[in-house]
Amino acid sequence: MIASLATEIEKRLGDNFYGKNEETLEQIIAHQLSRRDWSLKLFEFGLSGEVVRRLKQNNSLQKEFNSFRDLPDLPSLRVKLSENKQTNNEVVFGISFIPHSNKQTLHLCLLTPDGNFESTRTYGGPPENGSSWAVNSALDFLRRNIMPNH
Question: 95 lies in which domain range?
Answer without folding.
Answer: 24-146
